[in-house]
Amino acid sequence: MKNRIEDLKKQLEEISIESAEQLEEFRLKFLSKKGQLQGLFEDFKNVAKEDKPLVGNLINLLKNQAQEVYNELKDRLQTQEVGHEKSIDLSRPVEFSHQGARHPISVVRKEIVDIFNRIGFVISEGPEVEDDFHVFTALNFPQEHPARDMQDTFFIEKNPDIALRTHTSSVQVRVMESQQPPIRTISPGRVFRNEAISARAHCIFHQVEGLYVDKNVSFADLKQTLLYFAKEMFGEDTKIRLRPSYFPFTEPSAEMDVSCNICGGKGCNVCKYSGWLEILGCGMVDPNVLTNCGIDATEYSGFAFGMGVERIAMLKYQVKDLRLFFENDKRFLDQFSGAY
Ligand code: DAH
Fold first, then answer.
1. Which of 69, 84, 240, 249 is deepest in the core (most CB within 10 A)?
2. Interval 6-32: pLDDT, tens
3. Considering only CA atoms, which residue is closest to atom 5 of ligand 1?
4. CATH superfamily, domain at 104-336
5. Cα–Cα distance for residue pair 340/336, rounded to 1 Å
6. pTM of the predicted model, to two decimals?
7. 289-310 pLDDT, tens per residue?
């Protein structure tokens, strides 16, 4: 018995294995139910009583040693395989690597700007921190207008007033001050209002302002330009409707609705069963504004319009809560990853 144990121990120490098949042979020979170690355990009952503690111990040691040798050989074989060229599967699909994408507000802003670019409107930009003249006075806001109130506007300094612009109409003023007609410009940008944040309002949002000044610009030009925009943005079947309104810087002024692109005008909860969605403010530039900006109001006329990018994005993608655009939750943003 002792000889058999010694013999197996020697074999164990001299073992060399090159392949998975050899490893399996080793396992069968030493460790399986029909293997040699098991044979030793079976013959153990015939060992003389006084030898049993010693022999039993030897067999157990041998069994542990065999198991260790097996584990080690198996590990070595596996690492060799991984490092081996043959194990690289070139036909495997490439692993998906996560790519960033444009924010939905950037997508919609670009779409709006592109639509107007196609009919000759060029981009202009202005500062976010503005003086009173460009945000209010030049745009014909009376001194006592509520927008000039601290409740609505974030002031940086008082007397002279410096504020975060409340609308991109301030860029109109800057363009007209620095250029003579014909002017055809589109001004995207961030605006700021002292408002409580809710599903429908935020203190920071985005607008796009449009301005066209030339000889003989009429309300019909405004209407046709906006109809073109609505069809490009929301689809060929879109209809528009202009409702009389008031803005200090336009006369006459209007608000524009588009036919609801969700129910097709039949009425649904998004359009509050009216069939129409309000998307922008517009009008003919008030002659006072032209004069304030150094443009001869007897020679030139113009139209202007302004829209909220978040509002258009909410309608286009049926987003019910404006705050989602500002939270940067990846689960939300990922839904727009193919948008542009
Ligand atoms: N500035 C307006 C606002 O923030 C939007 C607007 C209305 C712009 C009429 C215009 C316009 O140019 O003509 O609500």
1. 249
2. 888 888 888 888 888 888 888 888 888
3. 306
4. Bira Bifunctional Protein; Domain 2 (3.30.930.10)
5. 8
6. 0.73
7. 999 999 999 999 999 999 999 9
